[in-house]
Amino acid sequence: MAPFGPLRRLLKRGGGRGRGGGAEAALKLDFESRRLRMVETQIVARGVRDENVLSALRKVPRHLFVPSDLRTHAYDDEPLPIGEGQTISQPYIVAYMTELLSLGRDDKVLEVGTGSGYQTAVLAEIVREVYSVEMIETLSRRARATLDGLGYRNIVFRTGDGTLGWSEHAPFDAILVAAAPDEIPSALESQLKVGGRMAIPVGSACQELVRVVRTKRGFERNRLLSVRFVPLISGPEWRR
Ligand code: SAH
C-alpha cells in the first residue's frame, strides 16, 4: 500500500534532500526539542533568569560538542566525558556561571579551559569578543573546528597555560575559569577591568564557585556554590 498523509509528506521531503535527509531533519528537530526542554527543566526551573543566557542555551547545539556516541545524552542533567580525561560541564553549571558574569553585548571575555568549546559558544552568542585558552592541543583544535563550522567569528583561541591569563588582550570585562585551582591565580584577577567580574571554582577535594568583582579599591570575593571541576593544571605540573 502506498504511504499517505504525514508519512508520504515525510518521505517526499526526505527524497528531495537525498537519502536520509528526512531522518536527519527529524533528528535535528528532536535535538532541538530536547534542548528547549533542558532549558526549561534544568535551567529556568533552578532560577536562572538572564534572558541573554537563556537564549544562548536555547540556540547552541550542545550535541555537536560531545563525542558522537554520547549525543543522545547531550541534553541530560550531567557533565559528560570529552576525551583526554576532561569533561563538558553540566548545562546548569554553564548557565549559572555565565549568569554570574552579568554580561553585556560589548564585553570582552577571557575563558580559561576551552574543553569542548560549548561554554565558549554560549559566551560568543552574548558578547563581542571571546578569548579562549586551552592547555591540551587536541581539545583546542577540535573545539576550534566545531566553532568554525558553526560560523562563530568572534572567538580567538590559544593553546597554553590559562593560569597566566592573556596579558596581550587584557583587561577583560569578565573571566570564566572552567577548571579549579587551589587558590585564585593573581594574574587572572589583575587582568580584570575595574568593575570586571570573574567566575572561578576554587579548591581541591572540596571546591566552591567564587564570584570575584574588581572594585576601585580591590577585589570582592563571594563563595556561592559547592561544585566539582577538573583541576586547573599549572606550574611544574603543567611543564611535566
Ligand atoms: N567549559 C568546557 C569545560 C572544560 S573542562 C566545556 O564546556 O567543554 C576544563 C578544561 O580546562 C579542560 O579541557 C582542561 O584541559 C583545561 N585546563 C586545565 N588546566 C588548564 C590551564 N592551566 N590552562 C588552560 N586550560 C586548562
Protein described:
The protein is an alpha/beta fold and 240 residues long. It has one domain: 3-Layer(aba) Sandwich (Rossmann fold). Helices cover 36% and strands 24% of the residues. The chain is built from eight helices and nine strands. It has helices spanning 5-16, 21-44, 51-59, 91-100, 118-126, 137-149, 186-190, 235-239, and strands at residues 80-83, 86-88, 108-112, 129-134, 155-159, 172-177, 192-202, 207-214, 219-227. Strands 5-4-3-6-7-8-9 form a seven-stranded mixed beta sheet. A hairpin with a 2-residue loop joins β1 and β2 (86-88). α1 (5-16) crosses α2 (21-44), α2 (21-44) runs antiparallel to α3 (51-59) and α3 (51-59) packs across α5 (118-126). The protein starts with a helix and ends with a helix. Mean pLDDT is 91; it is low at 1-18.
SSE topology sketch:
Elements: H1 5-16, H2 21-44, H3 51-59, E1 80-83, E2 86-88, H4 91-100, E3 108-112, H5 118-126, E4 129-134, H6 137-149, E5 155-159, E6 172-177, H7 186-190, E7 192-202, E8 207-214, E9 219-227, H8 235-239
Parallel strand pairs: 3-4, 3-6, 4-5, 6-7
Antiparallel strand pairs: 1-2, 7-8, 8-9
This protein binds S-adenosyl-L-homocysteine.
The site of S-adenosyl-L-homocysteine (SAH) has 26 residues, from strand 2, helix 5 and strand 4.
